[in-house]
Amino acid sequence: MKKQILAVDDSKAIRFLLQTVLGKSYQVITVPDGCSAMHWLSKRNFPHLIIADPQLPDLENWELIQQLSSSGIYKNIPVMVLSGLNAEETEEKCSAYSVQKYFLKPFNPVYLVNAVQQLIENKSLDTYYPMKAV
């Protein structure tokens, strides 16, 4: 059985890209907003990784990331951020919310796939390892 990834992004193009590049190795569930993500998670779904944009149309910036990091249920699920915000804010917030890796948009899909493999296979969830797009 394939490991699950929950991808949360309001951009249909980003969701399609994530489904395309990760779908061969993982079961990728894509949703367009924070409410859909929380609804899916509330049905006792525990993905191996959550990939999320910090800017979602139905929530304040970083609200979903903050909720996940402070949740007793979901805080041990690794989170990767795909951010369109500036590098300084992204790095600061990712560090504050214990985000394991992040990419600034636009990003290289090859680096993202490698980072996903590393996060899911290594299971070292307690350490913050920022990953910037090159």
Notes on the structure:
39% of the residues lie in helices and 17% in strands. The chain has 134 residues and is α/β, with parallel strands linked by helices. Strands 2-1-3-4-5 form a five-stranded parallel beta sheet, sandwiched between helices. β3, α3 and β4 form a beta-alpha-beta unit. It is globular, with a radius of gyration of 13 Å. The relative contact order is 0.17.
Count of discrete domains: 1
**CATH superfamily name?**
Response regulator
* Spatial gap, N to C terminus: 33 Å
Proportion in β-strands: 15-25%
Backbone shape: globular
How large is the count of helical segments?
5
Biggest β-sheet strands, sense, barrel: 5 strands, parallel
**What structural class results from the helix and strand content?**
alpha/beta
Mean pLDDT: 91
User: Based on the structure, what is the oligomeric state of the protein chains?
Assistant: single chain
> Into which percent range does the helicity of residues fall?
25-40%
Give the total of beta strands.
5
CATH fold topology: Rossmann fold
Which architecture does the CATH hierarchy give at level 2?
3-Layer(aba) Sandwich
Low-confidence stretches: 124-134
Radius of gyration: 13 Å
In CATH's first tier, which class applies? Alpha Beta
Summarize this structure as a short list of keywords or feature phrases.
alpha/beta; 17% strand; disordered C terminus; 134 residues
